[in-house]
Amino acid sequence: MATDIKLIALDMDGTLLNKKGKISEGNRQAIKEAQEKGIFVVLSTGRSLLTSREHADSLELTSYLVTVNGSEIWDEKREIVERNLVKSELIEWMWELSKQHKTKFWAISTERNWHDEMPGDLHTKEWLKFGFNIEDDATREFIKNELEAKGEFELSNSTLKNIEVNPTGINKAKGLKIVCERLGIEMNHVMAVGDSLNDMAMIKEAGLGVAMGNAQDAVKEAADWVTATNEEDGVAKAIRKWVLSNTNI
Q1: Pairing of strands 113-115, 104-109
Q2: Is the per-residue pLDDT at 167 higher than 70?
Q3: For 13-22, what is each residue's pLDDT tens digit?
Q4: How many of the other CB atoms lie within 10 Å of CB of 119?
Q5: Is 11 designated active site?
């Protein structure tokens, strides 16, 4: 397990944010203290810049952002470093799959987020991610199998009821590796904190992988340590134990 943490990578939903979508004062204070100590704090999220930037700004983060599960990486000036696109033909195929099985869906383009609707000029957009929200377990499993058979996708989730689809090989760990290279940090000096399958790669590849108390079982099993839930300042507890403590256990 890593003992010298130089970068903290934080998932947002189910991790940094509570059920109301807010950042607790406890989490906010711990992040502030970590930054004052010279630790880089990076949001590593399935969200787009549009829906994560406000939180990053409110925390006065001075580092990179890994968004859309690693499909986009932004520097400290919020300028694009790297972008990985899903072909529009594949987006259309997934949209048709969603309609065929009557599932809810969302999609993220470089311009905006789409929920249960798509633009008429779909092929003129640049696409970053597609997601299915599926209540029925059998339908979800069928669609997951169809996606896997296509051989074009990196599959994960952010809840037990959804499937998140990125280009093959694109995940939060890959995004963080690029950030670390630019900052001159090795991945074994990273603490990654998350709760869902889209956090699995970074939790496994970071020097210290931390699962939230509310994390999916598979994520807890993959992690080095399990903190409290997102309603109990789990992020702050992890930062205080592994980064801010004098002994740095």
Answers
A1: antiparallel
A2: yes
A3: 999 999 999 9
A4: 13
A5: yes
